[in-house]
Known about the structure:
By secondary structure, this protein is mostly beta strands. It has strands spanning 3-4, 7-10, 15-20, 22-23, 26-27, 35-41, 52-55, 61-65, 70-75, 86-93, 96-108.
Amino acid sequence: MAQLLKLSLVERNDVTVELAATRSGVPVAIDPGADLELYLKTTEYQDDADAIVLTRDDGEIVVTNDAAGVAEATIDGTLITPDLTFWRYDLIDGGARHTVLYGPLEVVNV
Length: 110
């Protein structure tokens, strides 16, 4: 399910990012009880516990179309800093973690 995707964000700007769960181009439905987590990291090797984590439980990720596997993450601009270089979006369903999207994170200074 994991798909490599570069994400570009503007430093210190609030943004909403659309996140789509697919497998071989086919939408993967998001179960109402599934946990969703978006990690913003300084490197791909940074421990998850030390990363910035946005979650469905905290209201930062909202499912906009569960059947189509689409959600939106709202990222506060104060979190978007030049030291971030990697991101990952996970779906946790029935205790199993599935990385949906991941890749390099570019923070643009304007």
